[in-house]
């Protein structure tokens, strides 16, 4: 999908013309209950295996959080099996349904769903913490869980692929059209991801990186959804935060917003953050010898 196709695709979503997915609810409780995984629907390959046990090498399960209008199966069809192949226990969820549109409801409610899902994953696996990889809203929404719902104590890494940390001025810079589309589609999450929204102002007030968590952001100069692309960056101490613009390390990679979640070069930063203590080290991630 090229840049303009992606813009059209997103605007169609925003106008409510495309409706897809099935509403699911994360409600399961209990340390040995695996029903919460089947309730999520079709996972990406390699994810939501209830028999997976974290290893000493990879003690934290990886939770994949899709972006606005996305399902886990579509968003992480490439990343999930690669993580599984590397020996991680991989889990993912669908969340935030408004009608039958995924990841479009109020972000506060979505974060509560994420909290329940992570609690269930921890109970199932016996792990103390998870690592989170999220795309777009899925890279920002966990911060609400971590800041307001006690999640900072349960997360080792938060890795955001083009996360909407400081919102967007509008798809392709079209502020009014984007706002109108969000209103027509009743996409509360879209409204909350607008630059200067009450939600984002509250989320980013004070410490943007709570807890003993490593934060990695990977973005692209070609992002036509999170505008400007630098609004994905998160502010924090350098030992805890790495902000990566992919063209600084792979100048010929012209990936844009939607497809960065499928980009093998972007995955190098994800893998580096997961495999080492602290956030990703870009030089190490792109090195020949890793």
From TrEMBL:
It comes from Fictibacillus phosphorivorans. This is Lipase. One of its GO terms (molecular function) is lipase activity. It comes from the Bacteria. One of its GO terms (biological process) is lipid catabolic process.
């Amino acid at each position: 999908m090229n840049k303009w196709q992606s813009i059209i695709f997103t605007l169609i979503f925003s106008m409510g013309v495309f409706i897809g997915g099935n509403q699911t609810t994360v409600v399961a409780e209990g340390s040995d209950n695996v029903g919460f995984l089947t309730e999520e629907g079709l996972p990406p390959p390699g994810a939501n295996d209830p028999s997976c046990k974290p290893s000493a090498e990879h003690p934290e399960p990886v939770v994949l959080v899709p972006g606005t209008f996305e399902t886990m199966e579509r968003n992480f069809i490439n990343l999930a099996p690669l993580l599984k192949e590397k020996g991680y226990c991989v889990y993912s969820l669908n969340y935030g349904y408004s009608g039958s549109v995924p990841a479009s409801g109020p972000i506060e409610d979505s974060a509560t769903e994420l909290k329940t899902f992570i609690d269930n994953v921890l109970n199932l696996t016996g792990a103390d913490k998870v690592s989170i990889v999220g795309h777009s809203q899925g890279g920002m929404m966990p911060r609400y869980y971590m800041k307001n719902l006690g999640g900072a104590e349960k997360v080792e890494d938060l890795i955001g692929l083009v996360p909407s940390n400081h919102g967007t001025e509008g798809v392709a810079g079209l502020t009014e059209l984007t706002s109108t589309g969000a209103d027509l589609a009743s996409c509360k999450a879209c409204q909350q991801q607008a630059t200067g929204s009450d939600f984002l102002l509250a989320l980013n007030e004070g410490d943007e990186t709570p807890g003993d968590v490593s934060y990695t952001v990977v973005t692209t100069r070609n992002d036509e959804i999170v505008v400007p692309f630098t609004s994905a960056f998160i502010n924090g101490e350098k030992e805890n935060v790495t902000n990566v613009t992919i063209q600084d390390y792979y100048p010929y990679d012209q990936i844009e917003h939607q497809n960065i979640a499928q980009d093998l070069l972007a995955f190098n930063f994800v893998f580096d953050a997961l495999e080492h203590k602290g956030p990703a080290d870009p030089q190490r991630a792109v090195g020949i010898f890793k």
